[in-house]
Amino acid sequence: MNFVISVIHYVEDPAAAADYLCNALGFQKKVKLSPRVVENGAISIRLELVPSLAAYKNELNLAMQTQNLAQAVTELATFFKAELSSPACAVSIDRKEAQLICPHHIRLTLVEELNEDQIGILPDLPTSLIWDTRAEACIKETLRQVPVSFRELARQRVTERAEMLAAEQALLTVNLEFAVQALADVTPNFQHAQLVAALLGQGVEPGGYFHTVDA
Hints:
Blueprint: E1 7-11, H1 14-25, E2 28-29, E3 37-39, E4 44-49, H2 53-56, E5 60-65, H3 69-79, E6 83-92, E7 95-102, E8 106-113, H4 116-119, E9 130-131, H5 133-142, H6 148-168, E10 173-174, H7 176-186, H8 192-201
Parallel strand pairs: 1-4, 5-8, 9-10
Antiparallel strand pairs: 2-3, 3-4, 6-7, 7-8
């Protein structure tokens, strides 16, 4: 089986470049006595002495994810002894980038990926059946109560459960009642009060599906 094992980067001083990658970017030398390869658990970089003037112009572009692009640009430009090549800008609706030029012909592309809340969208449900308009809107809005990191799984589980309830009744359309029951069925009891409040805020009657503790 053939597979890629590393990225090759040509530099004037492989040892100095290895030190920079380790000290500034968190890499580790694979073999301490011959530090040509550095790795960080995700990628490996093999540093080779530049063989010609043509190869001298080569550049290694590394992507680094951040949660605050503007702050990262300010802090890292100084820390990495880098120059700003491309200021922060949106490259797509859910992604912003900026680029720093670092020593040893390394370009650092800083990436901030925006979640659905930051973008201000309500993603479509992964439906297989027809959904009543109000039922679909209810699920989309109520799922905003779920932390973003868990929301995709919650979206999948609620949708599947609601469609199963409809199928059990030999129906091809998911109505609001099935949607609300599905929310209750797939959500732990200790979170039911939060969902009930969210439903009432939309003017939706939660029915008797939820377990809540009276004050």
